[in-house]
Amino acid sequence: MIDYRPKETIQKILISTTSRLVGEYDTKELLITHAWQSFKLPDHLSLTENPLCRNSFVVAFETSPIGKDVVFLPDYNQRGDLICAYLAVLFGKRFDNHGPLECIGYFRVPHMQAYSSICNPILPQNNHRPRVDLGIELDLSEIIKIKCLFNDDISDRFFHFFDAASRFYLQALQCFETNPETAYLHLITCGEILSNYYEYDTEELIDENTKFILKEIENALDNGPEVVKQIKSRFLQVKKRFVKTILNLINDRFFLNSESNNENTKLDKDGIERRVAAAYDLRSRYLHTGIDFGDWITMNRLDNSEVQDGTPEVEDREFASILAKAPTYFGMERIMRYCLLRFIHFEGVAIDSTLD
């Protein structure tokens, strides 16, 4: 008698992207291949850039048999979330996990809500063109570049940091079109997570001018050394770690490319430190005051502008200054993807020699 039931040790998950990828990734540990739509449906829904574009894939992998004494069944759906996050970082495209098709010996019904949602096909995360940074082709065979992320060839500490950071990056891509402010906060959180991976000495976070001032304080006050010690402790705060980490992960190659169609709104090396600092200030302003900024970080979305072209007209002059300096969503998204790629490159996941 033929057994048509799913195998308990073979898991299959449905994922999709608003972009279009060709090829497949087929190894003994993991298969990612196309789930073809009915040819009775209009071809343009998946083959061309349009608001309803969705290309689907099945992720299949083998797991260990489940023991008879297991009380709680494993949740392999999380593997789909992880794979979507990793592919988003690699390709710079939006991916969605719809859940299992077959899992631990049972057929499953995936979540299909995303298939009825629309997207803006001109956004870099949705269009059918490779991202400008590294120019990784939209071919599933390119996953070979990050194969060690799926093979337990990395340390647990590195895995936990990259896993968390990449998930926030993906969530930013997923919610940008409906909630740009939340998407921006997700990108900042992604950077905060990366910043906590590194150990910094206080001296690394202090510029030369500040060091001179601290020396003057130390010499002028009776309790100068204690005062300076307290001041230095403040330099380990989140914002300074955030800025330091971003500047360390971005190299000159980053500034050679841009997806902005306006020469005046491209990120440049000269102002990058104050722009990254302003991005964190924007996050803090929103969390502390609730002031809206979503419209400003999505201005000129047709041009994919990475920075503001001028100073926004708002009543709060300090807020206007922050908005003028902070990267837009498009600038911040490109910064964080590049940082994530360079982060894993430094840990032995050889993506491209230009990341050296």
Radius of gyration: 23 Å
The shape is globular
Secondary structural class: alpha+beta
| Number of discrete helical segments | 11
The domain tally reads 2
Mean pLDDT across every amino acid position: 86
Low-pLDDT ranges: none
What order do the strands of the largest sheet run in, or round the barrel if closed?
2-3-4-1-5-6
- Biggest sheet architecture: 6 strands, antiparallel
Q: Number of DSSP strands?
A: 6
What percent strand? Answer: 5-15%
Q: Please estimate the helix content.
A: 25-40%
How far the N terminus sits from the C terminus, by CA atoms, comes to 57 Å
How would you describe this protein?
With about 350 residues, the protein is of the alpha+beta class. It folds into two domains: about 10-155, no CATH class; about 180-200 and about 235-345, no CATH class. The chain is built from eleven helices and six strands. The protein has helices at about 45, 75-90, 155-175, 180-195, 210-220, 225-235, 240-250, 270-290, 295, 315-325, 330-345; strands at about 10-15, 25, 30-35, 55-60, 95-105, 105. A six-stranded antiparallel beta sheet has the order 2-3-4-1-5-6. Helix 3 runs antiparallel to helix 4 and helix 8 packs across helix 10. The longest helix is centred in the middle third of the chain and has 20 residues, at about 155-175. The radius of gyration is 23 Å and the shape is globular. The chain starts with 9 loop residues before the first strand and ends in a 10-residue tail after the last helix. The mean pLDDT is about 85.
